[in-house]
Amino acid sequence: MSVDAVALTEAAKGAGSVDALNELAAVKDLAAQDKLVHNKFLSIGLFRQLTDDAVLAVVEGCPKLQSLSVAACVKLTDKSIMAVGRSCPELRELVIAKCLRLSDASLATVAVAKNCVNLEVVDVSGCIEVTMDAVNDAAKMFPGIDIQT
């Protein structure tokens, strides 16, 4: 993990003391400078004010991501997860736990994403808009993906 990714992860842990504009600016700035392009693992969970625009900037700048956690980023919508599905062909693990605005569409998008052929684990625990029907359907269609609830 690069120094910048470590700094970003550390900033995320203290997200309660960092205002939303600083969080968003930090994420977008690192992505814009191509400082995340070689990262395979990135945890930007707990950035409670993180938006879809910031996630779009990050995933478009991180084509080698194998593991992404945006857990508890409560402002994210299905738009973010659709971008992950399009932009992260090497993704193996996606943690979207406690992202309260994500719906069944997020799970379906990632599970059927032609780009995410290596996907092994998707954690949707605490995603209150993701139904068990969607989890069961995805598990049947893609038995190689461990969908955690």
From TrEMBL:
Keywords: Ubl conjugation pathway. GO terms for cellular component: axoneme. InterPro entries: F-box_LRR-repeat, FBXL15_LRR, Leu-rich_rpt_Cys-con_subtyp, LRR_dom_sf. It is found in: Cytoplasm, Cytoskeleton, Cilium axoneme. The keyword 4Fe-4S does not apply. Residues 24-111 form the F-box/LRR-repeat protein 15-like leucin rich repeat domain. The lineage of its organism: Eukaryota, Viridiplantae, Chlorophyta, Pyramimonadophyceae, Pyramimonadales. Transmembrane segments: none annotated. It holds the Pfam family DUF7885. This is F-box/LRR-repeat protein 15-like leucin rich repeat domain-containing protein.
